[in-house]
Design a protein that fits this description.
Length: 405
């Protein structure tokens, strides 16, 4: 049994390029400092004394910045390449985290949060394009999973440490996030850039061969255009559990910052440990649509359980379900995006795909905080359940438009 596990584990991680590993390591360094966003709602409400509607507006500014940053990041990536975009994004993040730590008034803080998110999320389409450059069609989904493993392993460290820092002083969250941005930028500049230059010609050829799409523009791809709102709706239901949910955890369940951080860290740790091996075992055993639907239904079940279960230990179980939902949906939606694109259109496809996720950062805080204040938490859970079921329906529709039986 042990030898079989070692065989599966080794094959799951094998065959990926050196640059993919370096890119993943850069993201691990960066995401190990991911603390601010998970505690931002509590920080704005309890430390800066903004009301719920103001918290929603400030977090929506962060979401709008994400949308703008993703678009500009994709635009710049097509023109100057993914490498300078990644370095600039990380350096800008360092500067803006420092600025955010010293800003407390509403309008200046809204501006800084917008710029912070715009700068930080410019990295995301550049990262997607970099993955496609250093992957084949056969190992693309596993390359994405390794990249996400690094992100989630960082998330396992960041929120847990963030909970401890927040219990002392919330300002430490901004300084920790900024420091890891700076460290990641140095790593990308000195290590990933050198490796990428060495592999560039070979991997450009690989990337060109890895797509069988007939679409030269995402705007002419009907299945992809329907796929984008499907992604956004799922993202709203998913990310609510990792942003505004902290208000519920603290106010209704009575969880401490440390317990909140532990729940968030559990998600990152589970995804980091399980996802790549899971993808290796299932990616050829069913269509990507099957796994996206199953993942969406797991999120439906999670919200159904939230309606009547309470207490820290029950939420551990719920987070496990949510984590498996993430592991099924996110890698395969990424694969769908890559399969629909060509080398020449990959930047535009990646930009729109990441924008679909980023749009949720605008809609989620505005929608959720207003439902919380006007209708209560029980109504919110049923709205999220409805969203996850809409995702299932849209996935089936996308499958039909893609010509898959």
């Amino acid at each position: 049994m042990l030898s079989n596990f070692v065989y599966v584990f080794r094959n799951a991680f094998g065959g990926l390029s050196r640059s993919i590993w370096l890119l993943a390591l850069a993201q691990f360094i960066n995401r190990s400092g991911s603390m601010v966003i998970f505690f931002l709602a509590v920080y704005l409400k309890d430390e800066l004394n903004f009301d719920l509607s103001e918290v929603g507006i400030l977090m929506a500014c962060y979401g709008i910045g994400s949308l703008v940053g993703v678009y500009l990041g994709g635009w710049l990536t097509d023109r100057i390449g993914y490498y300078p975009v990644m370095v600039g994004s990380l350096l800008g993040g360092f500067v803006l985290f420092m600025a955010a730590s010293m800003t407390t008034d509403f309008v200046p803080l809204a501006t800084v949060l917008f710029l912070l998110s715009a700068c930080g999320d410019g990295f995301r389409p550049a990262g997607m394009v970099a993955i496609s450059h250093f992957s084949t069609k056969e190992n693309y989904t596993r390359s994405v999973s390794l990249y996400r493993l690094a992100i989630n392993l960082g998330f396992a460290i960041g929120p847990a440490l963030g909970g401890l820092l927040a219990s002392v002083d919330y300002q430490w969250l901004f300084w920790a996030d900024g420091t890891t941005c700076l460290l990641a930028s140095v790593f990308v500049f000195f290590y990933l850039g050198r490796s990428a230059k060495h592999e560039e010609e070979e991997d450009e050829a690989i990337a060109q061969e890895s797509s069988d799409s007939v679409y030269t523009s995402p705007w002419r791809d009907r299945a992809f255009l329907l796929f984008l709102p499907m992604v956004t709706i799922y993202a709203i239901a998913f990310f609510q559990l990792f942003s505004t949910m902290s208000i519920y955890y603290k106010g209704e369940e009575g969880f401490s910052e440390g317990q909140i951080g532990a729940l968030l860290a559990l998600n990152g740790l589970l995804v980091a440990i399980v996802e790549l091996v899971l993808i290796y075992k299932i990616e050829r055993k069913g269509s990507l649509y099957t796994w996206i639907i199953l993942g969406s239904l797991l999120l439906t079940l999670s919200y159904l359980l939230i309606t009547f279960l309470h207490g820290f230990y029950w939420f551990i179980f719920i987070i496990v379900l949510v984590s498996f939902s993430e592991m099924l949906v996110m890698p395969f939606t990424n694969t769908f995006m890559n399969n629909r694109s060509t080398k020449d259109s990959r930047g535009r496809y990646a930009s729109l795909y990441v924008m679909a996720w980023s749009a949720s950062h605008i809609f989620t805080p505005l929608l959720v905080t207003n439902i919380m204040s006007d209708w209560g938490y029980d109504f919110l859970w049923w709205v999220m359940i409805a969203f996850t079921l809409v995702v299932v329906v849209l996935t089936l529709w996308v499958k039909r438009l893609s010509g898959v039986k």
